[in-house]
Specification:
Radius of gyration: 20 Å
Shape: globular
CATH class of the largest domain: Alpha Beta
Number of strands: 21
CATH architecture of the largest domain: 2-Layer Sandwich
CATH topology of the largest domain: Uridine Diphospho-n-acetylenolpyruvylglucosamine Reductase, domain 3
Order of helices and strands: HEEHEEEEEHEHEEEEHEEHEEHEHEEEHE
Strand order of the largest sheet: 6-7-13-11-12
Length: 328
């Protein structure tokens, strides 16, 4: 259902909720791509967010909840509905435990924890996005993921605020229960860290950040790696037998290896390009569109499927592409 003036008026009356009409969503995605939202609303107030969410769900209008927009592809036509964003970014610690709001920038949390000599996040330095999104997608790097330190997660399920422990979050490789229940909204998390020397943690983080910035420059309009890596043990033998042992890392085969075999490097479509040095890195040169981006992604998936019989799975999320899911 399209949003009417009465729903917009009700949103505007919610205290501590900033509401705007026609906001370009390209401003809120790392790709710098995406059309306007009929209504964009954000708040750092938990009660205000729940009121806004209840208002749009009760009205039956189209809506989406977004985080930092790092792993987000928004359609060129935007969203004829409401986009909600929770922006609370507080970080507090007690001993080796950290309480962090979902809207906090992950890099800010990494810097905070390493500076206080708390081990567990240093390998995630340079990963863009918010903490809530990192938990949602179980972000990680260098053989570690945020699931290893999550003690509990506070979220809203559309009816009440609930708290899940680590096991209830059902973390898997780049997966969580929240990714399978997209209507649930993460508000905060408690992380269980371990004490270590701040200097050593910072040294590790600095080395990783240098490498990451060389591969994914901070100014590059991209989502990092587009596709998930593949679990070696889950591959059919006809595929695993042709994968060189030298490319296997922590029991995973990089999607980039398969993409290299089908000539992905340097592919171009309008303003969208695949990096010449990394086959799993797709970026917007500045004038790219969501249509072009989706066409490149679909072409790469098609080529890998034709060559290896595999279905590559994206790490990115799509919004605004309609009920039929068309993304080309």
């Amino acid at each position: 259902m399209k949003i009417g003036p009465e729903t917009i008026a009700r949103l505007a009356k919610i205290p501590n909720l900033a509401v705007s009409e026609g906001a370009l969503l390209s401003r809120y995605t790392r790709f710098g791509i995406g059309g306007p939202a009929r209504v964009y609303a954000e708040t750092a107030d938990q009660d205000a967010f729940i009121s806004a969410l209840d208002t749009v769900t009760g009205s039956g209008v189209n809506f989406e909840v977004i985080g930092g927009g790092t792993n987000l592809i928004v359609s060129d036509s935007g969203i004829d509905g409401v986009v909600l964003r929770f922006t609370a970014d507080s970080i507090e610690s007690d001993g080796a435990r950290i309480r962090v709001a979902a809207g906090a920038v992950l890099q800010t949390l990494v810097d905070y924890s390493t500076g206080k000599g708390m081990k567990g996040l240093e390998t995630m330095t340079g990963i863009p996005g918010s903490v809530g999104a990192a938990i949602y997608g179980n972000a990680g790097a260098y053989g570690h993921s945020i699931a290893e330190i999550v003690s509990s997660v506070v979220f809203y399920d559309g009816r009440q605020i609930r708290t899940f422990n680590n096991a209830e979050c059902q973390f898997q490789y780049r997966e969580s229960v929240f990714k399978r229940h997209k209507a649930w909204v993460i508000f905060s998390s408690e992380l269980a860290m371990t004490n270590a020397q701040a200097e050593e943690l910072q040294k590790t983080a600095n080395n990783i950040l240098r490498i990451r910035n060389e591969k994914y420059p901070p100014t590059m309009k991209c989502a990092g790696s587009i596709f998930k890596n593949l679990i070696l043990s889950e591959l059919p033998s006809r595929v695993s037998n042709v994968v060189p042992e030298t490319v296997i890392r922590e029991g995973k085969v990089p999607s980039a290896w398969f993409l290299e075999q089908i000539g992905a490097k340097g592919m171009k479509k309008g303003g969208i390009e695949v990096a010449a040095y990394h086959a799993n890195l797709i970026y917007n040169t500045g004038a790219g569109t969501a249509k072009q981006l989706c066409e490149v992604i679909n072409e790469l998936k098609s080529r890998v499927h034709e060559r290896f019989g595999l279905e590559l799975e994206e790490e990115v999320q799509y919004i605004g592409f309609g009920r039929n899911g068309s993304r080309a």
